Sequence to fold (261 residues):
Amino acid sequence: MPNLVAIQSDGPVVTITLNRPEQHNSFTPDLLAALLDALTAARHHHGVRVAVLQATGPSFSRGTDIAGLAGHADRALYADQVLRQLHQVMLAVIDLPVPLVVAVQGPATGSAIGLVLAADVVLVAPKASFTAYTTTLGLSPEGGWATLLPRLIGQRRAAEALLLERPISAAEAVAWGLANRLVPASHLAEETQALAHQMAAQLPGSIACTRRLLWSERDRLAAELDRERELFCAQIQSIEADIGLNAFLDRQRAMMTEADL
Fold:
């Protein structure tokens, strides 16, 4: 069984890779624990100056594993565990002494946006997109959709993306400030590494000071993420969530039945 999260180094750049492509790199407690371990290892890696986060497969990540969430005997308990871990990961990224560059090659849905929102620089391929998938499932925004996204793209755009589940395209992500550059898919990995090595050439003390200033609201963001988690765990116990998640499970079963025919 391959590692859920892989890590490798190239001089001053450490690259972390989400490696659960068959399940679209969706978040489980095991994957998030492995990601947190990778970030801790990157933090203490000798000579590291930049970290890169990327993903295998057609999707960057589908966020919280909805099948695991919907099928759990205690959905609120499962959601609380996953979101606590995700927020630990996001805060670990913010607390890194080095920048994080994220490469998004495909869709990032639900709470997966948290990994993008906590990054310093984001590169996207044309097939990248960002969709909340909250209201159709009867859930509440998580992963920074309500806490961090409005700071980057504005309240109105964030509201439309959440209330209507309107996907944010790769081009819009760049135009609105959610991402930095739109890169051809065939060049995404190469340009991400080139940018990371360019950033690694800068003086590390200055970089660390700059990041501390850019994330000066870190403690306030942590409190707001906690509020997102609390509302999500309350909403997931509602009748709306029962309807939305049961409908999701029904669609999954129907797709599996069709695949077997």
Summary: The first strand starts at residue 5 and ends at 10. The CA atoms of residues 97 and 209 lie 8 Å apart. The two ends are 28 Å apart (CA to CA).
